[in-house]
Amino acid sequence: MRIQALAKAAMDLVFPQVRCLCCDEPREINKDQPLCEACMASLEGLRIKDTSCPNCLSPKTSGQSCAYCADGGMAGLERAYAPYAYKDEARKLIMALKFGPVLLAAKPLAMEMALCISGVRFDALVPVPLHKDRQRERGMNQSEELCKLIEEYTGLPVLLALSKKRKTKRQSDLPKHLRHDNVKDAFEATMDVLGLDIVLVDDVRTTGSTARECAKALKEAGAASVSLLTAAVAGGGRHDELA
Fold first, then answer.
1. What is the percent of the chain where pLDDT is above 70?
2. Quick one: which of 170, 240, 233 has its CA closest to 207?
3. Residue 11 — very low, low, confident or very high, per pLDDT cuts 50/70/90?
4. CATH code of residue 86
């Protein structure tokens, strides 16, 4: 295996290839598409299912009420929008954007996110903020990067209307029952958003605790409504949990 890896590295130096972000196989050169055809097809299979709750996109049995909505999962939020379930290629793209950071990974995600809200009237996009220390660590905020591209596709302005006023533990490091308290009152509005219908933008929704706290801060600043737009939803129609 080591010899094969060295041979591959040597070939890449002599004949550099553009590789797929998900499977690392060679792909066609396309500045807007970081995936090979096989991974693009797999990503297409991760779309949120039609049987998911139309309000929050969580999986539910046909004819039954949505447990997530009934438990207050959408408190302060009008509706959730997302193209994909959070697994496989969708998860790999988000991880590449978030921790790479590979900004090219944002393009296919943002394009599909923009399509999710096409035809719906909104006034502005607001990215979920990172704490200043975390953003300095990472070098960027993935939600802001998604917003910039969605602005290009939709024409909706981006408002940096929220800040994270205290540092919190990573939500993904905590069990679900501790996530609400971790982000409680962690966000504040930085501007007046009186009467605006806002799209709150993030990379992935898991328990929704962060989104609810952000929506609360925006509503306190006068927002008429807050909807949530993410690239993926954990459990989005496939009963999958965040890995």
1. 88
2. 233
3. very low
4. 3.40.50.2020
